[in-house]
């Protein structure tokens, strides 16, 4: 288990170095404590044993590729403070987990392919999310999709699945 520090000496920590834990296949669990605002680019990319991430309510941004390739990652809940999810942030995640859920409670802007090729079965955009960028859910394995009241724009190829698989999709709208 990795627990990120809130302070080092007298310095308060609010983000981390790019690719800080990239490729560390021994990591199974991460706790991101209060005070952290950003999960950096490629922070946990290809951490193939990472199963659980506990995210503090202070988080505002998940940078590009942050969890790309975390094939064992389970359920994810982004707090209401989250305003940005970078390109490919959760691509190729939880592909070995059955029934994982992704929930965004915030008013986040999702960048290109943010959840693409993921194994999330249930995805809930509960805040006023901006899903106008292409292929937010491209090639994802979503079966249950909830789109919150304030979400108005879906980009082209929002949930494209033209790779040959056919998965029944249940969509809940306000």
Strand arrangement within the widest β-sheet reads 8-10-12-13-14
The overall average pLDDT, rounded, is 84
Low-confidence stretches: none
Distance between the termini: 39 Å
Structure annotation, total helices: 0
Helix content: under 10%
| Structural class assignment | mainly beta
Beta-sheet strand percentage? 15-25%
Oligomer: single chain
Tell me the number of strands: 14
The SSE order reads EEEEEEEEEEEEEE
Q: How large is the radius of gyration? A: 15 Å
For the sheet with most strands, the description reads:
5 strands, parallel
* Coarse morphology: globular
Question: What descriptors fit this protein?
Answer:
174 residues; 5-stranded parallel beta sheet; 4-stranded parallel beta sheet; 14 strands; 23% strand
What does this structure look like?
With 174 residues, this protein is mostly beta strands. It has no helices and 14 strands. The chain has strands at residues 2-3, 7-8, 11-12, 29-32, 38-39, 52-55, 61-62, 76-78, 84-85, 101-104, 109-110, 122-125, 144-147, 170-172. The strands form 4 sheets. A 5-stranded parallel β-sheet has the order 8-10-12-13-14, with no helix packed on it. Strands 5-7-9-11 form a 4-stranded parallel β-sheet, with no helix packed on it. Strands 1-4-6 form a 3-stranded parallel β-sheet, with no helix packed on it. The chain is globular. It starts with a strand and ends with a strand. The mean pLDDT is 84.
């Amino acid at each position: 288990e990795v627990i990120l520090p809130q302070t080092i000496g007298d310095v308060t920590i609010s983000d981390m170095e790019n690719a800080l834990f990239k490729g560390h296949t021994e990591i199974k669990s991460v706790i991101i404590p209060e005070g952290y605002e950003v999960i950096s680019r490629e922070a946990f990319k290809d951490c193939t044993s990472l199963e659980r991430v506990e995210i503090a309510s202070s988080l505002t941004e998940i940078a590009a590729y942050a969890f790309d390739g975390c094939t064992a990652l389970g359920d994810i809940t982004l707090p209401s403070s989250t305003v940005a999810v970078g390109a490919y942030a959760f691509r190729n995640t939880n592909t070995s987990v059955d029934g994982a859920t992704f929930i965004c409670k915030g008013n986040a802007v999702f960048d290109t392919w943010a959840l693409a090729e993921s194994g999330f079965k249930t995805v809930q955009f509960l805040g006023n999310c901006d899903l106008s960028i292409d292929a937010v859910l491209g090639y994802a394995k979503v079966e249950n999709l909830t789109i919150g009241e304030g979400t108005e724009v879906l980009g082209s190829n929002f949930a494209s699945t033209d790779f040959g698989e056919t998965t029944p999709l249940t969509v809940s709208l306000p």
